Amino acid sequence: EGEPCDDGNDVDTDACTNACAMASCGDGIVWTDKEQCDNGAENGLGKACNGMCQSNVCGDGDAGPGETCDDGNADDTDDCVACQQASCRDGFVWSGEEDCDDGNDIDTDDCTNACEPAECGDGIVQEGVKECDDGNQVDGDGCFECKKPRRVIFVTSKKFEGSLGGVDGADDECEKAAIAAGFTNGASFKAWLSDKEATSPAKRLDTQYQGMYVLIDGTPVAENGWADLTDGELLHAVDLTDTKMKVNSAPWTNTKADGTAGENDCNAWTNATGDFSGGVGKTNATDATWTEAVGVSLCDGARPLYCIEDV
């Protein structure tokens, strides 16, 4: 008498505990086949074991330990996903809040880290799609409609002795070649040529240009403007003529890789005798020797010019 039960065994997890009390949720003993858990006074809402002695699990509508939310549904597009507050880059598109969510930290793919579709003008260069993106639609600033401007560089199909009429005379030849090639802005083409009087590409060309330099067929030579053109490493050799013929020759340059003047200029490009020499480049080179080849050539030899589009 005085005992609610006594089953005569030492099993504490059956219907009658070892204290001869009827098993119940909240007694701190997990009743076999009846309860999943029982933490006694620690049972309840938001706990690992709820008030019915069932384990708190995601989807039961009660945000338990390790869960920031639990809305009791399997909808991955609302504000609670897998019992975590929906957030950008969790891999699920939050309806009404996000336009995309690819679940990664790559800002240059087709879904940015702000969970917005990549688009021209967002200031992010999407790999393989955009050449540039400066975050605006201003023309003339080095990036327009997410494409870099292009300026052409070619080798003249015509060859010249060292008596070019100075650098200005070489510019005239480049203008003629550009017009013959179909360029309406022929006058903007200049010879990549220097004399010892400090007339050099670095002095007379647009050194602030940030667009691309390309061959006459569009092949990129330098991707990021003057800085890339003069760093001693080209993307492709300057080996196409104004008639789109591939050549392997040594154009007159007397110009160093950085665009400054060398020391051999056929007497300021006015002499065509073997008494003077001129610096040359190599049309099959992508290193500094494209403009600054080892050795010089006598001025009575006929060689082409590099012509480059400028402002």
Keywords:
Mannose-Binding Protein A, Chain A, two-stranded antiparallel sheet, single chain, rod-shaped, 311 residues, 5-stranded mixed sheet, little secondary structure
What would you say this structure looks like, in words?
By secondary structure, this protein is largely without helices or strands. The protein has four helices and nine strands; from the N terminus they run βββαβαββααβββ. Strand 5 (212-214) and strand 6 form a beta hairpin.
Please describe the biggest sheet, giving its number of strands, its sense, and whether it closes into a barrel. 5 strands, mixed
The CATH topology annotation of the largest domain reads as: Mannose-Binding Protein A, Chain A
Overall mean pLDDT: 94
User: What is the count of helical runs?
Assistant: 4
**Element order: H for helix, E for strand:** EEEHEHEEHHEEE
Summed up, the domain count is 2
User: What's the CATH architecture name of the largest domain?
Assistant: Roll
Sequence of strands across the biggest β-sheet: 4-9-3-5-6
Low-confidence stretches: none
How would you classify the helix and strand content by structural class?
A: little secondary structure
Topology, number of strands: 9
Ends: how far apart?
109 Å
Domain DUF1554: 159-285
Keywords: Disulfide bond, Repeat, Signal
Organism: Nannocystis exedens
Protein name: Myxococcus cysteine-rich repeat-containing protein
